[in-house]
Hints:
Layout: H1 3-22, H2 28-35, H3 49-68, H4 71-84, H5 92-105, H6 108-116, H7 123-171, H8 176-186, H9 190-203, H10 208-219, H11 222-237, H12 241-304
Helix pairs in contact: 3-5, 4-7, 5-7, 6-7, 7-8, 7-12, 8-9, 9-10, 10-11, 11-12
Amino acid sequence: xxxxxxxxxxxxxxxxxxxxxxxxxxxxxxxxxxxxxxxxxxxxxxxxxxxxxxxxxxxxxxxxxxxxxxxxxxxxxxxxxxxxxxxxxxxxxxxxxxxxxxxxxxxxxxxxxxxxxxxxxxxxxxxxxxxxxxxxxxxxxxxxxxxxxxxxxxxxxxxxxxxxxxxxxxxxxxxxxxxxxxxxxxxxxxxxxxxxxxxxxxxxxxxxxxxxxxxxxxxxxxxxxxxxxxxxxxxxxxxxxxxxxxxxxxxxxxxxxxxxxxxxxxxxxxxxxxxxxxxxxxxxxxxxxxxxxxxxxxxxxxxxxxx
Length: 307
């Protein structure tokens, strides 16, 4: 197959994909309105180009991905986006559309480069296209994983201080909701953001148990899950919540100390790599360099007989 024919096939394929994504998809209601002489409103031309062109393509691509993907992928993606926090504008459809767009768009780069340079396609470019497609599908997941990990670490660091403040507030006579509200007002971190969302859910009518359980699902932090489980168990057994909170606060401080000691114990092992790779060769060069020069000069003198 000639390069011209292959280029034509690629152009036609891309054109059909774009046409399928941009083709209007009328719902049943819109179709009935059109039959009765009603027209749907035209798109606002004053809207940004992203909302008029790019966003419809992403939404249609997301519907295609959701249609062919298992249901558990949608649920897992929704849970992970909730754990990442601060992504109100990024829903499941948009995230999956970005993944699909990168998976389909990145492999076109080597193909377009070959077309523009009038070079023939080879196996190396095909392998590169497959690798770029896999990378485009995985890059959003890697970014989301790093964001979730950073948020969970921030919650772990903020939890002991927040528990101390909750203990003081509860022992002063406030309820648990009042203590959470005080923490939300005094501290600003991902943990207090989750506390504020929990209080908002309770204010909307959700029970305390359901709201706290949803908090553990969103955060995904084992220390916070243990704290919430202790509160719910104390509430179920009728134990004083102040005593339970004090025990949990002491346990959180011990865990933070142990975590810091563990991190400090890992420092020598982490320093071994840079020490062997950078510092040790320079030290060997400085110490043994003059000796090596003297040895080379000695053998040169013995060979030539010239001092």
